[in-house]
Specification:
Blueprint (H helix, E strand, L loop, with lengths): L6 H9 L18 H7 L6 E2 L11 H9 L4 E5 L22 E5 L12 E5 L2 H12 L8 H14 L7 H4 L22 H10 L3 H19 L5 E2 L10 E6 L2 H13 L18 H5 L6 H9 E5 L6 H18 L24
Parallel strand pairs: 1-2, 2-3
Antiparallel strand pairs: 3-4, 5-6, 6-7
């Protein structure tokens, strides 16, 4: 599994009685560094887990070719990619090229109802086994429906970028934190969540288009800032728009400027998995993963969902423009003057 990914994936691997083996990532599409993957796969490898970070597809053809030589299963982590299309150079959307793929409907996902997800399986034999395991799980408790309704209402209220600060002030929620949970319970999905999810499927296309449009807007306005590295495609419907700052100091300054305006940028995962407290002691992996470390230090992600208003986008541009300007030596600032105006226009990007 990738060294820069969600610790919950490592938790699931450990709960299955298996050992997570980490591979470095590449900085082009945030998927596996294929050379490292090829080196790590051997006859003891049961499965390879490609992660489609930010919903952008990894290079599945190369990954599948690597695993074919060892007979390992390919289980795609498409938790962040539900509804995302396949770019022209890919043969299928994320989550649909491996032996199995899972999508999440949890917090902050393309279709977010705080609960459950979707599993896609190619083999009928594996499908029957998965259904058998699911049917053996316990049902949610009777009070879960009320608790779920309250959590979902609060989540939708505070999903507005200008209200991000409010739940962040509640330490018990641990929002914005990345932590490893060694033990967790597994139970069947909630019927309440299923009822909420079904009607939202009709609006998924509109939400996907809004994320694509906002990503294109950011790409157009950031292209004149050489201190920022854009993501693989300018107009893809990312879960969040990923920007790589030239340095960690610039990334931190961007976060500071966003926070000053009540707009919370996110760093995603704070470190490679082998450095995360709790998991570090279990993995005992002292390898250095340079690209995973680079993402942890330089990455900042921006909201692209349909709730982001024109005014909020303009404020985001202003904050990032100010941070970039402050990072440029005084002698060079004339080259950057006016790249992003203080009140950036809130027009839609050119199609």
């Amino acid at each position: 599994m990738p060294a820069y990914s969600c610790p919950a994936v490592a938790s699931a691997v450990l709960k299955a009685g298996l050992k997570p083996v980490l591979c470095d990532v590449n900085l082009a599409d945030f998927g596996y560094r294929v050379e490292d993957l090829e080196r790590k796969i051997n006859d003891r490898t049961l499965a390879v887990i490609p992660v489609h970070l930010f919903g952008y597809p990894s290079r599945m053809e190369e990954i599948v070719a690597c695993t074919a030589r060892s007979g390992a299963w390919v289980i795609e982590d498409a938790a962040q990619a539900f509804g995302n299309p396949a770019p022209t150079q890919f043969s299928a959307p994320p989550g649909l090229q491996g032996d199995a793929g899972f999508f999440s409907f949890g917090r902050g996902k393309p279709l977010s109802v705080l609960h459950g997800g979707l599993l896609v399986i190619r083999s009928q034999e594996l499908r029957r086994e998965a259904i058998s395991i699911y049917e053996s799980l316990g049902e949610p408790g009777r009070w879960n429906h009320l608790k779920y309704a309250l959590r979902l209402s609060a989540y939708w209220l505070f999903s507005k970028p200008r209200l991000y600060w409010a739940p962040l002030k509640v330490p018990a929620l641990r929002l914005g934190e990345t932590f490893f949970e060694k033990e967790f319970s597994v139970q069947r999905g909630s019927a309440s969540a299923a009822r909420v999810t079904a009607p939202l499927l009709d609006s998924l296309g509109d939400e996907t288009e809004a994320r694509r449009r906002n990503a294109a807007y950011y790409a157009e306005h950031f292209q004149s800032l050489p201190a920022l590295e854009p993501p693989p495609r300018p107009d893809y419907p990312y879960l969040r728009y990923p920007l790589l700052a030239r340095t960690g100091d610039l990334r931190n300054q961007i976060l500071k400027e966003l926070a000053a305006r009540g707009l919370a940028g996110a760093v995603f995962y704070p470190c490679p998995l082998n450095e995360l407290p709790g998991l570090r002691e279990i993995l005992q992996d002292r390898a250095f993963y340079p690209n995973a470390r680079s993402l942890a230090e330089r990455l900042v992600t921006l909201p692209v969902h349909s709730g982001v208003s024109d005014r909020e986008r303009a404020m985001i541009l202003e904050a990032i423009g100010k941070a970039c300007s402050a990072s440029v030596p005084v002698s060079d600032r004339s080259l950057h003057a006016g790249t992003i105006p203080r009140t950036a226009p809130a027009t839609e990007p050119r199609e």
